[in-house]
Design a protein that fits this description.
The protein has eleven helices and 16 strands. Strand 12, helix 9 and strand 13 form a beta-alpha-beta unit. It is globular and about 65 Å long. Strands 1, 2, 3, 4, 5, 6, 7 and 15 form an eight-stranded mixed sheet that branches. Strands 8, 9, 10, 11, 12, 13, 14 and 16 form an eight-stranded mixed sheet that branches. It is an alpha+beta fold. It folds into two domains: 104 residues, Gcn5-related N-acetyltransferase (GNAT) (Aminopeptidase); 176 residues, Aminopeptidase (3-Layer(aba) Sandwich), CATH 3.40.630.
């Protein structure tokens, strides 16, 4: 059995060994095993790293669990990321011990987005609730042949676009406008205590991906924000919504702004992976749920895989339904892959 005293929060001095562990035990060439700067961007916390590590009697790392924080305070949500025990370890419970160590830290909730189907029963046994992100999309009816998605013609011709309140305006916004106008505290219970620092670092300071943020205003007040990223394959592209903040009743105003952009830029579709936004609200905003076997809205672009991918999650919170919002960019589901880095290095 492992010795719990050998489990700890990683220090900066452990960086090289963690990266080597990822490269050897998780995936050869993985971005977190090869790109030191990106690793530090994701996980550095002053002189610590947001990783729980286990070391064997030879003082070598034999297990890891990464986590990302929604804010720097003790009410932060922790999103777990890479959870791996060395193939050579002889302790079948080491992975559970590492997770339990994290559960003893100060936090508001633990969530993991993108969990393996095979591990769902383990999480349930440990007292976590599990679920699956719902996948929605808005097709571009002006495109006859899709290179990315598979969308039947009848769906393209049956889109119900909402009538937008003329008192509401929507526009692309800067971090300065976010800082001056959006009240993160007002929505902290719905957004896992994500704060301005998290938002700025995650979307405006990302070293690889380019994100755009759109805000919805009424009476000169910023009531909602939506974060998007463009994904491409061959000569085609799509708009991917990865995060949402604020009041859901303003979602339709932002979605219609994106529809205009979709048509102007000839994107194939808009898609949105989420949990906690009501299907009624999504339909009102013009979205169609991916539940038809003839519809394929891909999730993997690096490398591209033309199939539907279901993203499962667990949460330690007792919240559910519209009180538990989870989106694609939470945790590590919108992380660049090693294939992106190869393209950038050419």
């Amino acid at each position: 059995m492992s010795n719990s005293k050998n489990i700890s929060i990683a220090k900066l001095d452990d960086l090289d060994e963690i990266m080597q562990f990822i490269d050897n035990e998780w995936e050869k060439g993985h971005i977190l095993g090869t790109n030191r700067d990106f690793f530090l961007y994701e996980y550095q916390n002053k002189e610590l790293l947001n990783f729980v590590i286990s070391k064997n009697q030879s003082n070598q790392i034999n297990g890891i669990l990464g986590f990302l924080k929604s804010s720097s305070n003790v009410n932060s949500t922790l999103w777990t990321t890479m959870w791996k025990v060395s193939k050579s370890t002889n302790s079948p419970m080491l992975g559970i011990e590492i997770l339990n160590f994290l559960r003893k830290q100060d936090y508001n909730n633990i969530i993991s987005v993108g969990i393996n189907l095979k591990t769902i029963e383990i999480y349930k046994y440990l007292g976590f609730k599990t679920g699956v992100l719902e996948h929605y999309f808005i097709p571009n009816h002006n495109i006859n042949k899709n290179q990315i998605a598979i969308i039947p013609t009848h769906l393209k011709n049956n889109i119900n676009f909402p009538v937008i309140n003329k008192d509401i305006t929507c526009k692309k916004i800067t971090i300065k406008e976010v800082q001056e106008s959006f009240n993160f505290n007002k929505y902290k219970s719905l957004s896992h205590n994500k704060d301005l620092n998290y938002f700025k670092k995650r979307y405006f300071q990302h070293p690889i991906y380019k994100y755009d943020v759109y805000g919805s205003y009424k009476d000169s007040k910023l009531h909602a924000m939506l974060v998007v990223r463009i994904s491409s394959y061959l000569e085609s592209s799509c708009i991917r919504i990865v995060d949402f903040y604020g009041e859901a009743v303003f979602l339709d105003s932002i979605s219609m702004t994106l529809v205009k952009i979709m048509h102007e830029k000839n994107h194939e579709y808009i898609d949105f992976l989420c949990s906690g936004l009501s299907s009624t609200m999504m339909l009102k905003a013009g979205f169609i749920k991916v539940n038809d076997e003839d519809v394929v809205i891909p999730n993997y672009f690096e490398p591209f895989v033309r199939k539907n991918i279901f993203i499962n999650f667990f949460t330690g919170s007792s919240l559910d339904g519209e009180n538990l919002r989870i989106f694609k960019a939470d945790g590590d589901q919108d992380r660049p892959s090693s294939s992106v880095m190869k393209l950038l290095s050419k």
